UniProtKB/TrEMBL annotation:
The lineage of its organism: Bacteria, Thermotogati, Deinococcota, Deinococci, Deinococcales. Keywords: Coiled coil. This is Fibronectin-binding domain-containing protein. GO terms for cellular component: RQC complex. InterPro entries: NFACT_RNA-bd, RQC_Subunit_NEMF. PANTHER family: NUCLEAR EXPORT MEDIATOR FACTOR NEMF (PTHR15239), RIBOSOME QUALITY CONTROL COMPLEX SUBUNIT NEMF (PTHR15239:SF6). One of its GO terms (biological process) is rescue of stalled ribosome. Residues 333-377 form a coiled coil. GO terms for molecular function: ribosomal large subunit binding; tRNA binding.
Amino acid sequence: MEGLMLARVLRDLERHLPARNLGWVFPDETTAALLLDGVGNLVLSYRPPQPVVFVSRERLRGDPHNPFQRFLANRVRGDLVRAGQLKLDRVFVLHFAGETGFVDQPPTRLLFEVTGRNANVLVLEEGEGFGGRILQAAREITGSRNRFRTVRTGGTYTPPPPYEKLDPRTLTESDAQALAALPTGKWRERVDGLGPLLGAELARRANLAPNEAPAARWPEALTALRSLVTDPTVSEGVMQEGAREAARTEKAAQLRKALREPLEKRLTLLQNQLGDVARAEAGVDAAAQDRREADLLMAYAHGLEPGVASTVLPAFDGSGEVPIALDPQISAVQNAEKRYARARRREEVYERLQGREPALRAELAEAQERLDRLDAAPLEDLEALAATLQAERPEKSAYGMRFTTPGGFEALVGRNNKENATLTHRIGRSLDYWFHAQGYPGSHVLVRTGGRDLALPDLLYAAQLAAAHSKARGSSNVPVDYTRIKNVWRPKGAPAGQVHYTDQKTVFVDGTLPEG
């Protein structure tokens, strides 16, 4: 049900307000009908995905089918005094006066979100506008179902986010001229209260194709729009076409929602990786400082007293004295070697990340462009983007991440202790190969060879996977042990993922993911 249709129902209802409440009936578990004196039954059907509200003169019956309907019958009492719509959105509220009696019932508001698959009916405490405390909700929406908006009994109701659209009830000729270049079928993007059905009906009444812009015929489009405000009914042919368009619109909305989260995550990841490049660049200056201090320590090591926590040495260029903090547990030469090693690590990290910076910036621009196109993209483009993102996702198995070695063997990498244990003790066969970074917590890597030996490129590939998925990630010359699965066992009483092994060999690789 679209905004102008809802406005028509409320406009007809308001002529009879205030109206005496003659009681509630419930034809089924998602329909409530309020019998109003002189009006008939105000029927609220809130079953997704096609909720609707209308007035019926038919005799309706039915007792409450669930706790919400029982609460509605007992708590929402008294005359219906006012009705209001949120702009021309598919949200309206009914104000009830309450009643006095054996048990007094205070005034309440009944809010109906006539919003497709998110349809909901809420009983709110007395108040103005569209906010307030929720006394009871037909559908509880928790954070596990919707992380952006929750609807809980006892919580505070938050209306849909505000938006800016033209009101067709007050649309001027200059407004219509501004829309003349927009296809009539897309006027609903700029004009409030229109959805797929009324958008198609607008094109029919204006004698235009939905994808045709009115141009000089904008007065005809304006006349058609004003007629929709007065009579928002839809012809049978448009109803069928509009239903198809509504289904496409709903599918596009679902795809946009599904695609936005991975695109935003990708964008955040790339921004963080570029931040790593900037931090590594700053580390180069720290590496230069480490080298200067190390050179001074090596030059003056013979004159330094052991066990001191700091010293001051003259700079080589005569610019003054340089204060240097020392580890008193080791010698001056060892302090210098420690600085040299730290400087090398920082320089290696910067060189590695600097090489990736152009690719990261290109990926960031592509991800940002995809995100920017999301809102305006038609269904076909959204489906193509979804297929592209699916193809770009790394292949995963039921247990562990899956890679393929240069020789074509399957390599599985555990993502947690449980998967490590499963790969090593259940998936792996006795002659398969097992890899793990020596002395570092990390993933078990299983290469399924079927008893065949591994060539050196396969060994180095799997070893890099083990190093890159360990605490040694990003380091150089990481020792990685490998052996056959038959030589790996879990000690009695040890937690999942903890093993002992024998007959291992060791290779040294960089702690970065292998290419390809």
